Structures are given as C-alpha cells and as structure tokens.
Amino acid sequence: MLKKLILIIVILGIFFGAYSFVEPYLIQTKEITIESSQIPPEFDGKHIVFLTDIHYGSFFSKERVDSIVNQTNELKPDMILLGGDYVTSDSSAVGPVFLSLSKLKAPLGVYGVLGNNDPKNVSIHAMQNAGITYIGNNGAWIGTNSSRIRVGGVADMDTDVPNQLPILQDITPEDFVILVTHKPDYFPKVSKSRVDLVFAGHTHGGQITLFGLYAPFIKSQYEQKHLSGVTKLGNDTMIISNGIGMVWAPVRFFAPPQIVVVTLKRMT
C-alpha cells in the first residue's frame, strides 16, 4: 500500500511538474465588464485591452511577443493599455520588444507605464518611437470635450516617484477616469473620489500557486488580497492581471497568463 501511495505521488509530481511548463502557453482572454453612469454615451461598449508583464527575454521569445501582439489585434480593441515590465532589467532587450509592440493597433491609442524591471530612459524613448504614449505621472484626454474620458498612469512606486496629481487636473466629478499603475500596492493611495478604474499587474497572479488557492511567492505587501482579478476599495475598482511573462523560471502553476479585455458599459 505504501509503495502504491509513493508511486501515485511520484506520478502526480511528474504530471504537475510537466504541466507547469505548459501553462505559460495557455493564455487566457479574461473578459470584464465595467458599468458606470459616468461613462459617456460614445464610450458605451468600447473595449480596452490591458497587457502587462511581458518580460521579454530568456523565458519569453520575440516570436511569442509577436504572437501576443497578433492575438491582441485580433480582438479589435478600441484602446490598449500597457502595465510595464516589458523586459527583465536588460537594456538590450528594450528595442526588440517595443519593435514588436509598435504593431499594436487601436483607434483610440496605445498607452503605457513602466514597471520596476524597465530601464527608465531607454524604455521611454523606445516606447515613444513605437508610437505608444507614455503616461507615467501624466494623463491624456480621450475623445472630444463633449464626450471624453481621462486616461493616466503613475510611475513605479519602488523605483520612481508616482504622482497622480497631473492626471487629476481639470477633471470634474462627472468625468470617467482610468489610472494605470504597475503595482497594485499603489491602489490605497489612489484618489477614490476622482479615479473610477485602476489597472495593475506585477503580481503574475503569484506565478506559482497552490492550485490557485494560495500564492507563496506573491509580490505584494497586501499578500493574497492583491493577487489577481477584480478588487474594490470604496467606490473604486482595480483590475489586477496575471500578466504574460515569467520571472525566476519559465513556469506557471494555476496562475495562467492573461490578456484582459474590459468592456465599458454606460449605466442610465
């Protein structure tokens, strides 16, 4: 009986070990609907795609980045937001990854912030050359004066100084405001009375979890609370993506990579 039990444990270990190398290729398209009376009529039904934590490099090839770009474009997003960590601290990888990301297509634009692994100056330069609007500590109005939303982002809170004030300039209580932060730990600092929707990444959903129930290696001071999915604080909503790439090892376990698709729905 003991030998059979040991054999079963060994077989399961081999199976789950092998699966952890397969899961990084099982990219989910996670669909979320955000409802608000502040969404202008012209933005009702618009689709926002959020990509984050690509970590192009030894664990994630340029061919896979190109595949993510194609998969994203096939979703026909109206807007694309990027959450940082395009590389893993390798300056030489910045140019190639943004060459791929330059092919992202969205009629309302592509906007991004940097993560803690992105070399700042070279990344901002490459992002701008790729036709992507850098929104670190800055914001942009999308639409016209009669029907517009505010989209902004903040710098990474551990490697830079985030500042949401430039994003909140000239907004009114009626405006719908979106903020992108690499780390979800910034969420408690977000102005809840003025920001309606926050996008974050960084956690990788834990990357390696105990069957999705617990992440022993979570990269958040709030631990499991800011792991993945939709979380609320007051009237504000944050969406945390598992991201695309990996660190430490080319594995994921019950924390599949994600392309997040948000549909805006106007409440009347």
From TrEMBL:
Coiled coil: none annotated. InterPro entries: Calcineurin-like_PHP, Metallo-depent_PP-like, Metallophosphoesterase_sf. GO terms for molecular function: metal ion binding; UDP-2,3-diacylglucosamine hydrolase activity. Residues 47-205 form the Calcineurin-like phosphoesterase domain. PANTHER family: PHOSPHODIESTERASE YAEI, TRANSMEMBRANE PROTEIN WITH METALLOPHOSPHOESTERASE DOMAIN-RELATED. GO terms for cellular component: membrane. One of its GO terms (biological process) is lipid A biosynthetic process. The keyword Metal-binding applies. The keyword Metal-binding applies. Keywords: Hydrolase, Metal-binding. This is Metallophosphoesterase. It comes from Methanobacterium spitsbergense.
